């Protein structure tokens, strides 16, 4: 049995970052109230919430307090204590449950789930210790990428190994526990497919974005992705299979590699709204945040329509000052800053979305603006 949450009721959000903030703003447009649990006194979500609970994410008393004030609870990031979330689901309405978090927190569980869904991943091996990796490394050809099974983001917690002589570079990763080594994929493009699903099993997929990274951090998302229809169909089918297998509710971002053949290999999953979907605030008839709220509240989903080609570009700490000095020069840019207290190097502080009739001209405009120069 599913529950429908109506305007005037309260949505609890675990996590006070920018994703929670954009969820909260979307929910408030429909008349919902927002409660947020975050250890920060002035979190981006806390700035727009009706109720702030300031405590660590694994604080059971704080989770119970969130349950008391919320009619439904969602989350904006995946590094949540699974045991705490499981207990929370016993006393509160958490339509996404804890299983999706358990699977996506661990790269080994994640790869197993993707394969069980009938979708291809890169060849990989698992190892509990560095010694085990050295014993099993002949099962993969060089180069391969060693990643911690848990934790790690924006390139952290991983090491590329190009030869037997470089194998030692991965040894420190095992200080964090079990690791997975993945065959290096020679890919043509990276794309992400954001699929959203409500408790009735109704799904919707955002227009597919093409992702450009710099220093392992997402730099730009280009929409629509510059791929052919066959690849687009394969990508959507893969996302649908994974979402159905996981019986997920809410939002799932499926990051994929596009091969020279046009085939796809799934790289990783994120069980929440995703950086690569920010363009949807301006460029589609339903943003990923509005759709996420509909999904967790048991509302029917809207089928996304792309109004315009678009480029989303991330604003890191080092970009804030040059961006703010040039706002007047680019009236066609939609600027989003997240309200974070300190503009640290490589920290995601905001993003810019540009609707365009000429993608190449817009990409050139971004480069020549000087804001994102190295």
Automatic annotation (TrEMBL):
| Residues engaged in binding ATP | 107, 147, 152-158, 182-185, 190, 213, 267-268
Per UniProt, the keywords (alphabetical) are:
ATP-binding, Ligase, Nucleotide-binding, Purine biosynthesis
Q: Which Gene3D superfamilies match?
A: 3.40.50.20, ATP-grasp fold, A domain (3.30.1490.20), ATP-grasp fold, B domain (3.30.470.20)
- ATP-grasp domain sequence ranges: 111-297
**Hey, which family's this protein in?**
Belongs to the PurK/PurT family.
The protein's job, in short, is: Catalyzes the ATP-dependent conversion of 5-aminoimidazole ribonucleotide (AIR) and HCO(3)(-) to N5-carboxyaminoimidazole ribonucleotide (N5-CAIR).
Q: Provide the assembly information.
A: Homodimer.
- How is this protein named in the record? N5-carboxyaminoimidazole ribonucleotide synthase
